[in-house]
Amino acid sequence: MPDPAFPQAGAMVRLSTPDRGSDPRAAMMGAVAVREEQLGKQAVEARRGRVFTLVALVLAAVNLRLAVTSVGPVLTEIRDGLGMSGTVAGLLTSVPVVCFASVGLLAPRLARRFGAGPVIAGGLALLAVGLAARPFAPGSGLFLLLSAVALAGIALVNVLLPSIVKDHFPTQVGTITGLYTVALNVGATTAAAATVPLTGGFGDWRLGLACWALAALVALPPWLLIAGERTAARAAQVTGAPPVRVARQPIAWALAVYFGMQSTSAYVIIGWLPQIYRDAGLSAELAGVLFATTSLLGVPLGMGLSALAGRVRSQSTIAVGLGLFGIAGYLGLWVDPATTPWLWAVLLGIVNTAFPLVLTMIALRGRTPATVVALSAFAQGVGYLIAIPGPILIGALHDATHGWRAPLAVMVGLMVPQIVAGFFAGRDRQV
């Protein structure tokens, strides 16, 4: 019979190793460990989700200008192949701005109903269809219509990408905006440079133009996944919010005017800068290189400027500084384009970075993704409407005066409202 003064071995084990399930502290520590493990997995999944969204953003941004820049290099072949008149060719150059202005204004309503992700996916699908079908149109009218289909898709994506940046990267708005505007510039430059070689390789301008639909098809699957898997969780912030009446907000008008003024300057540079240099006696080759310089400068400068703009509370000083560079560049062309043509090209390349700046400001001025959608649609829609007359007016002035001094004087003058609007748009305010 065991001695009661000495417990048995099993009892000693139980006394020396108490049951963890009966110890509140051990249970709490176990729960904390499980919670930390869950949070760790959620953090990893969140990082993967942001990387996936970033890839989707970049792929979409690559497509935002190539539908426009791929046409110019083969416009002669298009006109010959379709029997396109000069009037229709002129309409073709104005369709992008009209589509960006009109269709872009519909984006907030569509986003509230379907979510931003599905609308972006739909925009990319429209772009792919338009790009693939328009080269095979039997006539110039249908070519123009299918171009409008592709550009309508671009307009929807244009407006909604800033809200995706605000939603998924709220603390990195400037950096991410700069990254996707760099992708936009790369896509535009690649299409402009590669369309003619592709046409030569295929032996047909239709195939050389249609192959750009592949870029939209590559960008589409990630957005289909986003639309299918994340819309309920993410787009609720857009669809569940009441419409924001941004037209009553002074900051929205400042953004719209600034967007319109910088678009006017950009389209004048795109449309007329090479001709200004050629009329000053420079060769066509050098004029093309100088024009390319203004575009290529936007890649590093746009990235750096957007990152800087996202880190400071007010972007007014940056906007004013860019306007002063623009005044200097246009004044230089007014005095003599041929004296220091590289300097004027660099100055105009700097002022062109107003585009990534205004996209960054749009994302920063809205408190929520829903507000950013509304601000983006208003600023881009109204801004593109403001920009429509600019390139036409400059061309008409050139024809009327048989020179470039009057048009360039107008461009110097237009830098003033751009500076004023940029100052007010850049102030530390939110809607």
UniProtKB/TrEMBL annotation:
<feature type="transmembrane region" description="Helical">
    <location>
        <begin position="207"/>
        <end position="226"/>
    </location>
</feature>
<dbReference type="InterPro" id="IPR052524">
    <property type="entry name" value="MFS_Cyanate_Porter"/>
</dbReference>
<feature type="transmembrane region" description="Helical">
    <location>
        <begin position="286"/>
        <end position="309"/>
    </location>
</feature>
<feature type="transmembrane region" description="Helical">
    <location>
        <begin position="371"/>
        <end position="394"/>
    </location>
</feature>
<dbReference type="InterPro" id="IPR036259">
    <property type="entry name" value="MFS_trans_sf"/>
</dbReference>
<feature type="transmembrane region" description="Helical">
    <location>
        <begin position="88"/>
        <end position="107"/>
    </location>
</feature>
<feature type="transmembrane region" description="Helical">
    <location>
        <begin position="341"/>
        <end position="364"/>
    </location>
</feature>
<feature type="transmembrane region" description="Helical">
    <location>
        <begin position="51"/>
        <end position="68"/>
    </location>
</feature>
<dbReference type="Pfam" id="PF07690">
    <property type="entry name" value="MFS_1"/>
</dbReference>
<dbReference type="GO" id="GO:0005886">
    <property type="term" value="C:plasma membrane"/>
</dbReference>
<feature type="domain" description="Major facilitator superfamily (MFS) profile">
    <location>
        <begin position="53"/>
        <end position="430"/>
    </location>
</feature>
<feature type="transmembrane region" description="Helical">
    <location>
        <begin position="251"/>
        <end position="274"/>
    </location>
</feature>
<feature type="transmembrane region" description="Helical">
    <location>
        <begin position="406"/>
        <end position="426"/>
    </location>
</feature>
<keyword id="KW-1133">Transmembrane helix</keyword>
<dbReference type="GO" id="GO:0022857">
    <property type="term" value="F:transmembrane transporter activity"/>
</dbReference>
<keyword id="KW-0472">Membrane</keyword>
<feature type="transmembrane region" description="Helical">
    <location>
        <begin position="173"/>
        <end position="195"/>
    </location>
</feature>
<feature type="transmembrane region" description="Helical">
    <location>
        <begin position="142"/>
        <end position="161"/>
    </location>
</feature>
<feature type="region of interest" description="Disordered">
    <location>
        <begin position="1"/>
        <end position="23"/>
    </location>
</feature>
<feature type="transmembrane region" description="Helical">
    <location>
        <begin position="316"/>
        <end position="335"/>
    </location>
</feature>
<keyword id="KW-0812">Transmembrane</keyword>
<protein>
    <submittedName>
        <fullName>CP family cyanate transporter-like MFS transporter</fullName>
    </submittedName>
</protein>
<dbReference type="InterPro" id="IPR020846">
    <property type="entry name" value="MFS_dom"/>
</dbReference>
<dbReference type="InterPro" id="IPR011701">
    <property type="entry name" value="MFS"/>
</dbReference>
<feature type="transmembrane region" description="Helical">
    <location>
        <begin position="114"/>
        <end position="136"/>
    </location>
</feature>
